[in-house]
Specification:
mainly alpha
Amino acid sequence: MQPVPFSQLTKALLDENKPFPPRYLHRLSDLNPEDAAQLAAAWGRTAAWRREALMEDLIELSDADYVLSFEAVARIGLKDENAPVRMMSIEMLADYELADLIPNFLQMVENDPDAEVRARAATALGQYVYMGEVEELAETTLHKVEDCLLRVTSGGDAPLVRQRALESLGYSSREEVAALIEAAYNARSKDWLATALLAMGRSGQERWGVSVLRMLDHASTAVQVEAVTAAGQLELKEAKPELLAIARSVQSEELVRSAAIWALSEIGGPGVQQALEDLLEQADDDEEEFINEALENLAFTEDLGLFSLIDLNEADLDADDADEFAPPREDGEKKAARKRRKKEQ
């Protein structure tokens, strides 16, 4: 099947009297420079409502098919006069972890006229803090991102923007961050408390364990979800009895219960596999896939724990043996957390 000529696509985009053909959406994936330039030229002449609808469709499509890449469209959307389009463009680009986008996000988090766009940009910067912590980003660039987020968190912007900035700083090992998290935790605000707990979980620092445990039964669902999630990220074994009770209770809020199941898979230890298998037997179709994923994550967690106990010295192994005994690859958040813990020791 011949691809749709791009001139035909832009013509359809500009025709407000007809719906934009859904079959054209795939054509916007992996645009070459020539097609991207043609789209950029037509973008400003396209009705605002259509640009917004197009971005919504592309996000939905990319969520359903990870092979598709609408990076070129989202880059154009970053400069859109319509705030929702800018927000959706940031959301889409956040999946790509492209360091050349950092200047755009830094500028937007401090200068965009819309608070929700600034908040979304602050969230997008979190991935770069985390990349810096696992040494996948230049240290000078990491510090620029951290400095910007520190200014925003300590500044006078809208609470939503400052909260998202602090959440992104949760990945950071900068000394200034702990005091900001502590202040958010002690603020008389459920939103700030949820933000503090999210940052605590991302930090990987055991110092926050007691603070997280205190909030496992909080009356606010949002706060409780963040506390339960943080307990898993921090691998708090003391939280297991309460997490098991939440996971087994039919009275638990669905979001809290799901968070507890995943947190248990992060903590592991005696009784967790059996508990998850028991839940799997009772699960409906919607929950079955999630619990199976949690069981896979539990196996990963247990393998990591077993390997750390063995503590093999790879210098004493030849190359083939080293490959045979290599542990499963850690996800980025765990790597970042372990690095921070090493710094603290």
